[in-house]
Amino acid sequence: MIDFLAASIRIATPLVFAALGGILSERAGVFAVGLEGMMLMGAFGAVIGAWASASDLLGLAMALAGGAAMGLAVAIVTVRYRADNMVTGLTVNILAAGLTTYLLHVLAGSSAIQVDPLGPWPIPGLSAIPVLGPLLFAHPPLTYLALLGCAGLSFLLYRTQTGLKLRAAGENPEAVFVAGSSPMRLRFTAIICGGAIAGLGGAVLSLQQVGTFTDGMTGGRGYLALASLIVGRWNPWGAAAACLVFGAAEAFELRLQTYGVPVSSYVVQMVPYLIALAVLAGLGRSTKLPAAIGKPL
Amino acid sequence: MSDALSATPATRIALRRQGLLPRILGAVLLSFIIAALLIALTGHNPLTAFAAMLGGVFGSPYQIGEALNRTSPYLLAGSGVALCFRAGVINIGADGQIAMGGIGAAGVVLLWPGQPGLLSAVAAIIGAALCGAAWAGIATAIHLGRRVHEVLVTLLLNFVALLLVQLALAGPLGQPGAGFLQSRPLPRADWLWRAPHVFFHGGIILGVIAALALSVLLWKTPFGFAIRVTGQSRRAAAYAGFSAAGITWGVMLTAGGLAGIAGGTEVLGLHHRLIEGFSTGFGFKAVTVALLGALEPAAVIPAALFVGLLESGALSMQRQIGVPSALVVVIEGITMLLILAATVRRA
């Protein structure tokens, strides 16, 4: 049981980062379909950075930079040139897939790049608590950071003036303009920062969990993160909870396979996507999107 | 009619009317320049690489046929996507619809064996179209019935369809003991017609017919007019008495059917069996060629041809001088970003 819950948390962590980045972008008024590409670039940057410099910190910096670069591309095309958010996001996902595959071939040839994955950082004292210790306080560093990120983003959005402006840029950009700020600049910044955070989610997948990069390793997680931030109603804690549900679904699926339960693994693998569809359909029109989302300025 | 349907979607693909062609060509040129820089990064001469690409495509009739075979699914699915985008419906589900088409075609041939060749081939294509259209229909029903954004629905269904192919291959259609997921080979009598000497299959011909037919539909019929009005302004369409829901059903089922046929021709014409993941990425290529063709079904023909030639050329570039063929994906991504930035009409 503890294993199962720990696995759920492990699987949910990259989703949480991506969802946080997506919330930042969508609250400012731009759909975050590009999360998949941002994660992929982040995953690539993290491993390449750590491999080239032998420093995990530089790897993480590269993950932030990779995600932010994809965010920049989205920001320029959607905010400056007012293109459709959805199609732009998808395009960025394609671009990231192409760039990472190309650069991986160029940098590593046919050999795989291996780095040491980030080890767990047990929190002294707390990790010795039975049951709760191994479950909550013996994770690798980025998992704690995801939790801090939820708290930080909540504070930013609901307790600071910047957060108020940012939400206004997504709800009523004219009001931001009248108040003397530039909604375009707010959106630009939010998308780029969101991209960087989603890039960290990619780093969790590559640098923290396996220590290598493989083509297309995000495998649709960016889209699941997108679904979970909608299910979580653009609220960091809500989105994190939704990510945990998806994480639990996938952890459950892995268990079923190891126990040899006679359910086709393909059916079980569909479960996260079906849950996402069912929840979105169930929420239906009650989902309250930021009012000005997708509207070009 | 509820507000979600009567209001024009906040985001839509409306291309400017003038100067489209030079802008699109400019986008392609600029992305090739960026690609040249990326090639130079690897220490190769970009000109040699591009020459290898060209030589690869036009080197032999066989390679031209191979490029046409790549073009065929992009054209079939892409012209349908262009129709959807014209109506303001952002259908990203071609991936899944192609996958379902593959299941449909292979299912008809393998589970209903022993029919005379022509009947079997026609039935397989129809089965493919129905499966693709049904998958698009599920997406449309969820989108319209529950007001979930069509991008999310079609995206999530893509993943489910991919797994359904694997499920079918692990079950009723699979070849036991093959070591990986594939169906039994289809009997030779059911293979799609292939051109002698050039080896392209009939899919490309179906694609050209479909694209031209959609172009006529879009510009010369009342339904096409309704599609264009709906894409431009839902309010104007509602005022004119066009049902946005009806238009959405129409374009989604048409696009789904065509994507299904694309999947069917891949199975019947190219692989001669159903293979795991045969459709992966095709849906996004369909969006690429639709945008490259400025959402004009007839113009998707040269756009799809261009992408098909580019891809088959890139494979021989990789074989000959070792520049990774993933470069093509980079070129496609950059071209699309540039087209989106340069051709979308200012609101």
Automatic annotation (TrEMBL), chain A:
Residue ranges crossing the lipid bilayer per the database entry: 6-24, 31-51, 57-78, 90-115, 135-158, 188-207, 263-283
Q: What is this protein called?
A: ABC transporter permease
Coiled-coil boundaries: none
One GO cellular component from the entry?
Answer: plasma membrane
Its lineage opens with: Bacteria, Pseudomonadati, Pseudomonadota, Alphaproteobacteria, Acetobacterales
The record's listing under Pfam families reads: BPD_transp_2
Alphabetized InterPro entries for the sequence? ABC_transp_permease (IPR001851)
Q: How does it sit in the membrane?
A: Multi-pass membrane protein
Report if keyword Chaperone is assigned. Answer: no
Record keywords: Cell membrane, Membrane, Transmembrane, Transmembrane helix
Q: Name one GO molecular function term.
A: transmembrane transporter activity
**Is Coiled coil set as a keyword in this record?**
no
Superkingdom per UniProt: Bacteria
Q: Where in the cell is it found?
A: Cell membrane
Where does the protein principally reside? membrane
Automatic annotation (TrEMBL), chain B:
Membrane-spanning segments: 20-41, 47-68, 89-112, 118-139, 151-171, 198-219, 239-262, 282-309, 321-344
Alphabetically ordered keywords of this record: Cell membrane, Membrane, Transmembrane, Transmembrane helix
One GO molecular-function annotation for this sequence?
transmembrane transporter activity
Q: What does the entry list under GO cellular component?
A: plasma membrane
CDD domains in the record = TM_PBP1_transp_TpRbsC_like (cd06580)
Q: What is its main location?
A: membrane
Which Pfam families does the annotation name? Answer: BPD_transp_2 (PF02653)
Cell compartment(s), UniProt: Cell membrane
How does the entry describe its membrane topology? Multi-pass membrane protein
- Per its UniProt record, what PANTHER family does this chain match? ABC TRANSPORTER, PERMEASE PROTEIN, GUANOSINE ABC TRANSPORTER PERMEASE PROTEIN NUPP
In Swiss-Prot or TrEMBL terms, this protein is called ABC transporter permease
Q: Which organism is it from?
A: Acidisoma silvae
